[in-house]
Design goal:
alpha+beta, eight-stranded mixed sheet, signal, Lipoprotein
């Protein structure tokens, strides 16, 4: 831990040497202070550090052992790299502990599947053919992702305790890698992205509010690899408990809180460890998205990732990541799939894509999917509007995410869907939407015999649950109160 934080402090010093600080704050939102200027082209860098050699490297309880000492170092986030003795050579890994048992403590090289994994046989999609035999001759451009399995019963959904990434590079990286993001662990493409690509001037510098988490807490939350590359809700099976939550709603609360916390008026040096971890998550998600990863609406499981990608696209000025956000088909991300504008109700309604039969099966039996949208486009969906997944697990994180779009208005164009902002305002100011509704309760589409009496399906729920719900953050609520009213107008339709 001391080594990792020391490396992050060094990275902060280098990045600070490459930026200048502005104090004008032109165009700042209410309560906003001046921003850091962009990296200065051609600014001098720190002198290269001497390269160490390692016969083994250890991180988070995982040890990689090699046949002899190779050049080694760490990236800006503290994850390790190693390089062969000569161009085109290999690094021979002789052991990885804790040892793979055939069913536990698995590892993969360049994970490339969104429906299979080699980490734990108890997890969905286990495929032992994805685990290479040792000794393993690793070549440049390979990420070795190693897990530690939980010994006993799962924690929540996951069967993993921890995971770490060792990156094999083809050569020693500039400045020993200290000023580079770790290449994405997923897939074969391993770009080396320098910290100087980060447009820190695009971060607001807002006056602090109550309940703000510490930057150390945010940095710790995103310090370890976010092993998050499996499709569907069973992807939580391989979320290591030491790395990230198993449940998407908690991921969403965390990612929204982190994005908002990075907007407060702390020094760049103080923010950098948290910012590196958050952007690293975006870099990893982007690689997995190219490999077929999606986060379609599914209860409370898949929410919270789109904002990380949008944040990374904006701060890294990365057109490739931006396209993964802006051009994604509808319901690639749960943040979109849970919402849609209804011209019938003239309102953004909550509910995931679902058949009419599935909707009424749930209404009449309380079984099946509990997040179906209303097939008649009149009211909020779900088993009961304003309840179940709308209340428990999605809406409050959506509100916090909408505030991020308000406070960094360029993200609204990148987001390419105005429904989130409209829905968040409606929930905070009014609550659930259930009127007018001409359909009879439990009627499989039958009309109410007397629509004028405002019976419908759930008339008593109209306007309930206003600004309420679980997976809420007192910090995000305080930020909303402080900054929503004075936020810039929506830039993009």
């Amino acid at each position: 831990m001391n080594i990792r934080w020391g490396r992050l402090a060094s990275s902060a010093a280098v990045l600070l040497a490459l930026v200048s600080c502005g104090g004008g704050g032109d165009g700042a939102a209410p309560g906003q202070q001046g921003n850091d200027a962009p990296p200065v082209a051609g600014a001098p860098s720190q002198p290269p550090q001497s390269t160490a050699t390692c016969s083994e490297v250890a991180q988070y309880g995982i040890t990689f052992t090699f046949d002899h000492a190779y050049a080694c170092g760490t990236f800006a986030n503290g994850d390790h790299w190693i390089a062969p003795d000569a161009a085109g050579g290999v690094v021979t890994i002789t052991a990885i502990s804790p040892a793979y048992t055939g069913t536990r403590n698995g590892f993969e090289v360049n994970p490339a599947h969104v429906d299979r994994q080699g980490f734990d046989s108890r997890s969905e999609g286990f495929d032992p053919t994805l685990v290479p035999a040792l000794p393993y001759a690793a070549r440049g451009g390979e990420s070795v992702v190693k897990s530690i399995s939980l010994v006993d019963s799962p924690a929540g959904r996951t069967f993993l305790d921890s995971a770490a990434v060792l990156t094999v590079l083809g050569a020693i990286p500039p400045e020993g890698g200290a000023n580079l993001f770790r290449p994405p662990y997923f897939g074969a493409d391993k770009p080396l992205i320098p910290l100087t690509r980060v447009h820190t001037e695009r971060l607001p510098k807002l006056a602090p509010v109550d309940y703000a988490p510490s930057l150390d807490d945010i940095a710790s939350r995103f310090a370890r690899v976010q092993l998050d590359h499996m499709n569907d809700w069973t992807g939580a099976d391989i979320h290591p408990v030491q790395n990230l939550p198993d449940y998407g709603a908690q991921v969403a609360e965390d990612t929204a809180d982190a994005g908002l916390r990075l907007m407060l008026a702390d020094s760049l040096q103080a923010k950098l460890p948290a910012l590196i971890g958050y952007l690293q998550y975006g870099i990893d998600l982007a690689a997995a998205r190219h490999g077929g990863l999606q986060f379609a609406a599914n209860g409370g499981h898949r929410i919270g990732r789109k904002v990380v990608l949008a944040f990374a696209a904006e701060l890294l000025d990365d057109a490739d990541i931006a396209a993964l956000v802006h051009d994604a088909p509808y319901n690639t991300y749960q943040e979109d799939g849970d919402l849609h504008f209804s011209p019938v109700a003239n309102q953004v309604l909550w509910g995931a894509p679902c058949s009419t039969d599935d909707y009424w099966f749930n209404q009449n039996t309380t079984r099946g999917s509990r997040d179906c949208r209303d097939p008649y486009d009149r009211i909020d969906g779900g088993q009961t509007p304003g309840g179940e997944y709308q209340f428990c697990c999605t809406t409050k994180p959506l509100v916090a995410t909408a505030l991020i779009l308000h406070l960094m208005p360029h993200l609204q164009c990148l987001w390419n869907n105005p429904d989130l902002i409209a829905y968040a305002d409606r929930w905070v100011n009014f609550g659930a939407w259930t009127q007018p509704d001409p359909y009879a309760p439990h009627g499989n589409g039958a009309l109410d015999t007397d629509p004028s009496d405002k019976t419908g399906r759930y008339p008593a729920l109209h306007g309930t649950s206003r600004n309420d719900g679980y997976y809420s953050s007192r910090f995000a609520d305080a930020m909303w109160v402080a900054y929503r009213a004075g936020a810039a107008a929506t830039l993009c339709p």
